User: Fold this.
Amino acid sequence: MRRTILYIITQSELGGAQRYVFDLVNSLKDEFKVLVAFGEQGGKGELAKRLEEINVDYYVVPYLVRKISLISDIAAFFNLLKLINKIKPDVVHLNSSKVSILGSLAAFLIKKIKKKNLLIVYTAHGWVFNEPLSFIKKVFYEYIEKFTAYFKDKIICVSEFDYQVALNKNIIPQNKLVVIYNSIPELSFYPKEKARLELASLIKKDLDNKLVIGSIGNLYPNKGFKYLIKAAKKIVKYNPDTIFVIIGDGIQRKFLEDIITKNGLLDNVFLVGRIKSAWKLLKGFDVYVCSSLKEGLSYTILEAMQAARPIVATNVGGNAELIRDNVSGFLVKTKDYNSLSEKIKILIDDPSLREKVGEKAKNNVQQHFSFKKMIQKTKMLYLRNMF
Assistant:
């Protein structure tokens, strides 16, 4: 009889955490009975659509939303309690901060009340308290992580950085922590010419003789896109033939559109919305940028490395574990759009350096971030702790 794993995540719109869940589910569905539960976006989200394509069942949890709401969160907790009790999984694998709290408590109660051998796993996709928050909020989230760690059996950190933060802040006991790097399977990219044509059609602009700077991510505050746009203003003044393409959507779209308009960048900076399999377009970028204020281990950087793109990224989370500064890419401080623009300028001025840095990034991801190893380590964590 196959063991049952229930993956729970707050939203079904596609982001790094949802990508992680999908990769695990798709890789382990033949060995385990895998099920997925999520709230916000429900069956309309991209994760739900991808699960349908591979014939994996999912459940929509009413009232489970990203935004903190006491009434909704209490209702979501009881709905999670009912769902876990109904499915009776052997493993509950939690993803996202909201589910970390509600899901761990619900699973722990089922475990104790039903006296069931239930393994509770949580993957921290970058600690919330590392985001640019007020001191009070940071302390609050640190306390919540420390409190809910009691209900979890194992906590996966996707970078050594997050592992060390948890230890140094004395948030989680070392015996509960494990590092398993995010990784991605080998991807098939569009050739540069096709990718450029696709990008040109998206922005309705000829890209011949243009330098294209790209970024992919949800338009959320912690992605730092407003700082990328500020850097873009400096670069466009330096080289008017530079085009910036940001692939993704989210709550900051109108805010970012206003910044683009106010800075006179409508002909140079484009928000093109969400695109399925956006990574296919990566070879169309001359430089890839990650301007995030917080990361776990960035999927988009892994994709850009595999595409041999030269990368400029903020030095947050596991980015320094992916990129060796001044060798396989460039790292800058968060919010420092002046440094961001200067590093991008270095790359747009030197085509041979772009090629050299991109190839080193590709070699690094191939040697040190094995998808097979990520799946195997996660599977072994389940098996070693399941009984």
The radius of gyration is 21 Å. The CA atoms of residues 140 and 205 lie 47 Å apart.
